[in-house]
Write a structure and sequence with these properties.
Structural class of chain B: alpha/beta
Helix content of chain B: 55-70%
Largest sheet of chain A: 2 strands, antiparallel
Distance between the termini of chain B: 71 Å
Structural class of chain A: mainly alpha
Mean pLDDT of chain B: 87
CATH topology of chain A: ABC transporter involved in vitamin B12 uptake, BtuC
Low-confidence stretches of chain B: 327-337, 590-602
Largest interface: A-B, 60 and 55 residues
Oligomer: heterodimer
Strand content of chain B: 5-15%
Number of helices of chain A: 12
Low-confidence stretches of chain A: 286-293
Radius of gyration of chain B: 29 Å
Strand order of the largest sheet of chain B: 8-9-10-5-11-12
Number of domains of chain A: 1
Number of helices of chain B: 27
Helix content of chain A: over 70%
Order of helices and strands of chain A: HHHHEEHHHHHHHH
Shape of chain B: elongated
Number of strands of chain B: 12
Largest sheet of chain B: 6 strands, mixed
CATH class of chain A: Mainly Alpha
Distance between the termini of chain A: 44 Å
């Protein structure tokens, strides 16, 4: 029983981190109706940047987010203005192929720069644990989850308490209507994309400590993130949080009681089952393109 | 144009001949042969992808999974049974088709986004399965197949000709599909999925079948390829890079064309060789292909063949044989309608309601349409006329009320089934499929779903003849080969009417047949409707052109605030005070008479 409780709490800690990682993907989809397949690759890229900062300057990986977040914001800004904005009005299939091409290009660039070697950041606390009664919790996991929750709270405040946040939400619900009341869609879209990509700054920091970084690992990440947002409902931030917590727990239990090798299969199966049974996910509505049934 | 067609045929024949002859002429060129084998493989994969992504409009980025599924199926069976992998290869196709059918089912109710996500999951799910099920697949150690039993002198020749044959087969499959009713339905789904459903296309079945068709030959090729490589492992067989390359090939050549994917494959393979030879730098290969794919999406989205075709047609414009024709009213040319029983209620709507958020668009709407008539449906803007049409045809599901068609309750029947029952409609802003020709638009509708029906030839034979007759009836025969998007608005209205007539409908709902059309055309449309009505087709017409409605329709239904407020012959409607109220606003009659209370307000 203790073992199960520990697994549950560990799953929730992992889920908190996943919620942050998925927030950028769901935000971009909610406003722009674009699946950013490159989100996983950008996440690994941010992780490798953190790794460089740690290796060269000894910067603590979580503190490194202060540097990587603005960098990833700028990367997101540039990707939107240079590439995505050109085919804003193209069919969904073309925007997906574009972000897919970006993911492959970034993976290639990471391979050229960092080689196909497993890397991870190992600050002093990475193998220490908190002891709480009969439970052991890895410090890195706790710090990671706390950082993720802080960023998510900040994102939530940004979306609900600022004009820019209201503009983003307005544009996500009705682009034409928001344009009529003075919201510049292009500016909002760029901002959303940039903010969505900027979440990979802290995300990458956490990733670099908790997981091993490897250029090709972005496929695993995008699969995880897609599983989360599909379960939660594409475009819904609360949905992403719920989906992340559920899948974090599901993955922890699979890893503990079955095998870590089968843990990722949970995500693929969730994608298939959710799309088959409830395409709109738990809290979303956008993925249901139909009007029939 | 005929010159261009001849030129293309000659090029294809010559290219095919050269590929058949190549290994015979250069028997020892193992390297060249292996490159060509890969080009054939990529071409047939791109061609398969094109059926789903090019025709139906659903992009898959995990298509290479089917190669792995075919390869593992055949390898495992061959190792257990000792039967030659070449004989087992068709079973690889069966396995791929089964997986495609199951995954296809997940997008029966959803659209593009869901499908893309499914295909990513598909590739990595199967890669993980192949890695983890070590007892069966050997895990990351892979599987080694027996060496071919034939003489080493002929080396790769059997593989070479098998792959070439599979490539030819997959081009043939695409070509055949594009000609059938099934293929027309697929393109219709790509262009406008809801409209496709409205003309009888059973979209879920079409989508699943299309995904199966796009997977099956890749699965067969997977079996052959596994034998050719003689060793398979999860990373090589479920490789995302192959997906990138096949998508790139199909896009470069021209998505939605027959030969584009093949042409693209022969362009992508040299790029593949070049980057491989450039150096073993890790990531360079991916970097190059990522850039290439991105560049094509941004700068050559239509692909080479359509771009060149458009350029050629601009350089060599064809005159369209167009003559002003008298309205076609000869009875002989109008389609014979089903036996009608005039006066019986054909459509009965009772208590229909639909809310959009806080707006009650339709609110307790009840009316009947008698068989054999031309019933008008008028009402001010926003009174709910178009929503009623959407509810009756099933494009929108109502919140309450019932709809009966020919005595049968249909409000829970799917849109295409309503079309099969004989319920057709046109749209206020016409919804022809813009990139299909006028003739293709007419042969896309499906009168009833059956598997043999799907395989029916659509561009020649009885279907095309019937479409030709209807085009003649509406006077658009000379424009049959033009893309529907090029027609004038009035011509589009006529073409959409002809399209609906292909359903052999008993009741046609017309949404503003005269809206935005020039007066000469209006007269022609009115005469056409009368003629069709005489032939037994019942019409329900929403129209704002009052002279036309008053002349054509009897009875007339008047809608306001989501319900029918008056019904009767034109003369009675013209005098009905409730109708005047609805159009001019509540109390206009009172305001015209001096009224003390209203004066106070002013």
């Amino acid at each position: 029983m203790t073992h199960a409780t520990e697994t549950l709490i560990l799953g929730l800690l992992i889920g908190g981190v996943y919620a942050l990682l998925a927030s950028g993907l769901t935000l971009i989809f909610g406003v722009m109706n674009i699946i950013n397949v490159a989100q996983g690759a950008l996440l690994v890229l941010a992780g490798l940047l953190t790794y460089e900062l740690w290796r060269r300057f000894g910067l603590d990986p979580i503190a490194a987010a202060v540097v990587t977040t603005p960098v990833m914001f700028a990367v997101g800004w540039a990707i939107y203005r240079l590439f995505v904005a050109r085919i804003r009005t193209a069919p969904v299939s073309m925007t997906v192929l574009l972000t897919f091409a970006l993911a492959i290009t970034i993976e290639g660039a990471m391979g050229l720069t960092w080689k196909n070697v497993f890397r991870s950041v190992t600050p002093g606390y990475f193998d220490e644990s908190f002891h709480l009664g009969p439970f052991f919790f890895p410090k890195a996991q706790v710090f990671g989850c706390l950082a993720a929750v802080a960023v998510l709270a900040g994102l939530w405040l940004l979306l609900t308490r600022t004009w820019a946040g209201r503009a983003i939400r307005a544009a996500s619900q009705n682009p034409q209507g928001s344009a009529l009341v003075g919201v510049d869609f292009r500016a909002v879209a760029t901002l959303t994309f940039a903010v969505g990509v900027a979440t990979t700054g802290v995300g990458g920091s956490i990733l670099s400590v908790l997981y091993t970084l490897f250029p090709a690992s972005h496929y695993l990440w995008i699969s995880r993130l897609l599983g989360i947002v599909v379960l939660g409902g594409m475009g819904s931030l609360p949905g992403a949080v719920v989906g992340a917590l559920l899948l974090g727990v599901a993955e922890a239990f699979t890893a503990t009681y079955v095998s870590t090798r089968w843990a990722t299969v949970v995500f693929y199966l969730v994608i298939l089952v959710v799309l088959l049974v409830r395409p709109q996910g738990l809290m979303g509505s956008r993925l249901r393109g139909d009007v029939v049934t | 144009m005929t010159g261009a067609v001849g030129l293309r045929r000659a090029a294809i024949a010559l290219g095919g001949l050269a590929l058949v002859a190549y290994p015979l002429v250069r028997l020892d060129d193992v390297y060249g042969q292996s490159i060509l084998i890969f080009a054939f493989l990529l071409g047939l994969m791109a061609s398969g992808w094109n059926i789903m992504a090019g025709f139906t409009g659903y992009v898959s980025i995990g298509q290479s999974a089917f190669l792995g599924i075919g390869a593992y199926t055949v390898a495992l069976l061959a190792l257990r049974t000792g039967v030659s992998p070449l004989l087992l290869a068709p079973l690889g196709g069966v396995a791929a088709a089964l997986v495609a059918a199951v995954l296809g089912a997940t997008v029966m109710r959803a659209r593009e986004h869901a499908f893309v996500i499914i295909t990513i999951a598909l590739l990595f799910l199967f890669q993980t399965l192949a890695l983890n099920l070590e007892g069966i697949t050997g895990g990351s150690n892979g599987l080694t197949l027996p060496l071919p039993s034939w003489d080493r002198d002929i080396q790769n020749l059997p593989f070479y000709y098998l792959m070439l044959g599979l490539l030819a087969l997959s081009v043939l499959l695409s070509w055949w599909i594009r000609r059938t009713k099934f293929g027309m339905g697929l393109v219709a789904i790509r262009e406008d999925e809801d409209k496709a459903a409205a003309i009888g296309v059973r979209t879920p079945a079409y989508k699943v079948l299309s995904f199966v068709a796009s997977a099956v030959l890749i699965g067969v090729a997977g079996g052959v390829y596994a034998y050719y490589l003689s060793f398979i492992d999860p990373r090589g067989m479920f490789d995302i890079l192959i997906s990138v390359q096949l998508v790139l090939a199909a896009l470069v050549g021209g998505r939605g064309t027959i030969w584009g994917p093949v042409l693209g494959a022969f362009l992508v393979v040299p790029l593949n060789e070049a980057t491989l030879n450039l150096g073993a730098a890790e990531g360079l290969h991916l970097f190059a292909f990522g850039l290439a794919l991105g560049a094509v999406v941004l700068f050559l989205p239509r692909g080479l063949i359509p771009t060149v075709q458009a350029w050629w047609e601009r350089r060599h414009p064809r005159p369209v044989a167009w003559e002003r024709r008298a309205p076609a009213t000869t009875a002989a040319r109008a389609p014979a309608g089903p036996a009608a029983a005039p006066g019986r209620a054909l459509l009965e709507v009772d208590g229909l309601a639909k809310r959009f958020g806080g707006v009650a668009a339709v609110d307790g709407c009840s009316f009947t349409v008698a068989e054999g008539g031309l019933t008008g449906l008028i009402g001010p803007n926003g009174s709910g006329k178009t929503t009623v049409f959407n509810l009756v045809t099933g494009m929108v599901r109502g919140d309450a009320g019932s709809i009966r068609f020919d005595g049968r309750r249909v409000d829970r029947v799917l849109p295409w089934e309503r079309a099969h029952l004989g319920l057709g409609r046109t749209f206020q802003v016409t919804r022809l499929f813009p990139r299909m020709t006028v003739l293709e638009n007419l042969v896309a509708p499906l009168r009833g779903f059956s598997w043999p029906n799907l395989a029916t030839d659509a561009v020649s034979g009885p279907e095309a003849r019937r479409a030709g007759e209807l085009l003649d009836l509406v006077g658009l025969a000379p424009l049959a080969a033009e893309p529907a998007g090029q027609l004038s608005f009035g011509q589009q209205k006529l073409a959409e009417l002809a399209q609906v007539l292909m359903l052999e409908p008993r009741l046609v709902l017309l949404d503003e047949p005269a809206g935005g059309v020039n007066p000469g055309m209006i007269e022609r449309i009115a005469e056409l409707l009368l003629e069709l009505n005489r032939r037994g087709i019942t019409f329900l017409i929403v129209e704002h052109n009052m002279p036309m409605v008053l002349e054509l329709c009897d009875p007339i239904l008047v809608m306001a605030r989501g319900r029918v407020i008056a019904e009767g012959p034109p003369a009675a409607i013209q005098r009905d005070p409730a109708v005047l109220d609805a159009y001019l606003g509540e109390g206009w009659g009172k305001a015209s008479r001096p009224d003390p209370s209203s004066q106070v307000e002013v």
